[in-house]
Amino acid sequence: MSSSSLAKAHFIANEIEKLADQLKPSVIRAARIEKEGQKDLDRIEYALGTIGKALILTDYSVDEQKDLDKLEEFRELHGKD
User: Which among 37, 63, 69, 73 could disulfide-bond with 31, CB atoms 3.0 to 4.6 Å apart, if both were Cys?
Assistant: First the structure.
């Protein structure tokens, strides 16, 4: 595994933790009131679902194309409207 990819994983983990700390119940409740806020919550939910599926579907083999195909299939099935 390249050190660049490992650094990206570290950066993403740090950023997600920071963002999760900001997503308080008051923020979610306020977002649900407005149509645009609800769209943002839907985007957050979709992004988190995609991250979760990527972590589950990506196996430990070196067949990156197979992993990308699985993720693409997931996105097609659960894509945004």
Answer: 37
